[in-house]
Amino acid sequence: MQTEGKVAPWLQKHELGKLPRLWQKLNIEAGWETALESVLRERTGALEVSNLDWAKAFFTDSPPAKLSLFSLSGTAQNTDAAPAGLTPLITLLQMDDPGLRALMQDWLHGVYVAEDSGSALADRLKLPAGACFVTRQGHVVSKLSVRFYAADSEQDGMLARQQEIDNLVRQVRAQQLLADESRQHSVQADAALTQGTLRLEELTREVSVLTDALHVLQMELLRRNEILERFSQRSMQIESDLTEIAAQEAEQKQIMQEAENALEQLDSELGEVQEKHEDGQTIYLQHEARLNQARETLRELGLAAQQAEFSLKSHENRIQELKRSIGTAQDQSAQLYASMEQGTLELESLDDQAAQAGLQSLLERRSEQEAVLS
Fold it and tell me: How do beta strands 132-135 and 47-48 pair?
């Protein structure tokens, strides 16, 4: 039925042709547009009025075709929870306007969705009184009836077309934004290219400087790595030395402990020794006095020995001298004896007086010789 052409003059007459349509405000999950149109039917193209009381004037001059008016002055109410396993059609709508939500709560009350007609027929007994299922194809199933959907006016499929148009508009806007952004990016890219060229030259110079600096840093890194290697080796050696020192320290502690134990024992023994020492100190002093006396005696004996040695040497020298004197005396005695023998012979030939004189002379010579010998 071509209702739009019949109602258009009436709308112009009452200056209602420019009022917003309901389908312009609806946005439903993709694939469920036909289902929503099947439930709303001619209400899909309903006109929005600010005050629903204005409709009083139209009852005396009603439109020549089906027409719906609506107002968004209502307030959305908290609805009862849906029966288990059932999904209300209104939950598929995307609405931010509380007045539109109140309107849809009124017009879509008791309408639940079913993926297909088979599941709708199978689950129809679960429906509350007065409720119905609507499928994606727009077919309506209640407990006691089935209403098949078919497009019968130019308004059918309007929601789908509107959503398609909205999507195309959004795509065109997105493409325009992308084009504007691309043009802006192109201008920015040209400016960036010019700036980048200058920057590239600057960076080339910086790279040359950095290359030289990198070489210096690499040499420094190599030197520091060598230092680090030596440090690591030294650290390992120090750790080994510390381990050895710790072992030695433990050993020294054990030795010190043993020494302390031994020292305690020695202290005890020292006490005993000190007692003995005090007793032996007197004996030591006595022995030391005796030793000093013996040393004095030995010194005196040494002096006496030195004097005896000196006397011995003097006597030996005297003996040698006496031996020489005895030898001399013996020689002189021999000479004297020879002289006496000769004197005797001479006496025999002399008279007594002469003999006496000669004998006296010989006696004097003998006394001289004895004096010499003594």
Answer: unpaired
